[in-house]
């Protein structure tokens, strides 16, 4: 298939683009490089530099079999402080993409959504049927896009899938996490091992969890990419399918730090800090729907494997 990958110079987009190229698809990456990296576009993919809302129509006019949509702002704190960036950069740009998809009769869409659409969970593991009550503009913007996609599939026979990620981690052979502002736990801990950060902060050690620290569901980025290929394969015209992507198991902050110590051989000092407002104690995905309907089950679930791949990439880039 000929596929457009928006945001394909970013972390998840570049890894998914690499998987698509490796499996024989013709890939075009559209990215404005505001947070992505030109050298993250995989060999074999054609690169178009441009802002999503402005450029999508011209690119899709070439004729495509599908779009994988990763381009987005994704910093929770920034979304609270500057919500206008998220309503415009995520929602307005995605609306323009959907209009371009409709105008050029592009039949498939896979959207990079997030577990942040659920907000504070009422039950754990979290199923796709859980109430969606996002607690920040980032999650709200992604949920708004999900609603837009649902309306387009019903009205225009688009075959669409939204994949709600939990905590993406790890690295592909050549592509991994490189954020100007890093907020994810594993790369922050690895920065301590690399000597670019003095210590890692543990936000609260009195949560109602086995060791008192927050528990999260970590999904290897290569497993995530596998799910995107399956989503393309099983998309049905006129249907908008939503799937959680997680391992179905949780690891605490302390367990992640210990795994990083084991993998890197560094002591990695940890400092207990006050809880952060809005942090749920436990976030774990229920992945039954993806297993049953897509035949997807993550295979790279060992925490030290996830950390090891991230460490190999970070060490190489240091």
Automatic annotation (TrEMBL):
Pathway assigned in UniProt: Carbohydrate metabolism; galactose metabolism
Pfam families: Epimerase (PF01370)
Domain NAD-dependent epimerase/dehydratase: start-end pairs: 4-246
Cofactors required: NAD(+)
GO terms, molecular function: UDP-glucose 4-epimerase activity
CDD domains in UniProt: UDP_G4E_1_SDR_e (cd05247)
Catalysis performed (reactions): UDP-alpha-D-glucose = UDP-alpha-D-galactose
Alphabetical GO biological process terms: galactose catabolic process via UDP-galactose, Leloir pathway
EC number of this enzyme: 5.1.3.2
Alphabetical UniProt keywords: Carbohydrate metabolism, Isomerase, NAD
Keyword NAD included in the entry's annotation: yes
Family listed: Belongs to the NAD(P)-dependent epimerase/dehydratase family.
Oligomeric and partner information: Homodimer.
Protein name: UDP-glucose 4-epimerase
Organism: Pseudonocardia sediminis
């Amino acid at each position: 298939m000929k596929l457009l990958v928006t945001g394909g110079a970013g972390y998840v987009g570049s890894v998914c683009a690499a998987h698509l190229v490796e499996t024989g698809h013709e890939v075009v990456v559209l990215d404005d490089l505001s947070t992505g990296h030109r050298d993250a576009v995989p060999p074999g993919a054609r690169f178009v530099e441009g802002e999503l809302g402005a450029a999508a129509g011209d690119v899709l006019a070439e004729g495509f079999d599908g779009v994988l949509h990763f381009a987005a702002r994704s910093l929770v704190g920034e979304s609270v402080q500057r919500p206008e960036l998220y309503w415009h950069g995520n929602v307005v740009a995605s609306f323009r993409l959907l209009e371009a998809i409709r105008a050029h009769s592009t039949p498939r869409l896979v959207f990079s959504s997030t577990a942040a659409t659920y907000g504070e969970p009422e039950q754990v593991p979290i199923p796709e049927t859980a109430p969606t009550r996002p607690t920040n503009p980032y999650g709200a913007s992604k949920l708004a896009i999900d609603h837009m996609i649902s309306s387009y599939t019903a009205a225009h026979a688009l075959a669409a899938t939204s994949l709600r990620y939990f905590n993406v981690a790890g690295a592909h052979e050549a592509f991994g996490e490189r954020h100007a502002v890093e907020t994810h736990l594993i790369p922050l801990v690895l920065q301590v091992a690399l000597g670019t950060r003095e210590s890692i902060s543990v936000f609260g050690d009195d949560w109602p969890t086995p060791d008192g620290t927050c528990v999260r569901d970590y999904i290897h980025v290569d497993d995530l990419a596998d799910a995107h290929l399956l989503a393309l394969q099983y998309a049905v015209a006129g249907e908008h399918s939503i799937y959680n992507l997680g391992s179905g198991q949780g690891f605490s902050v302390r367990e992640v730090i210990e795994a990083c110590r084991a993998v890197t051989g560094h002591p990695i000092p940890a400092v207990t800090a006050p809880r952060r407002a809005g942090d749920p104690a436990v976030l774990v995905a229920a992945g039954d729907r993806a297993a049953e309907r897509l035949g997807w089950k993550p295979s790279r679930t060992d925490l030290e494997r996830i950390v090891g791949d991230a460490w190999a990439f970070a060490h190489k880039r240091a």
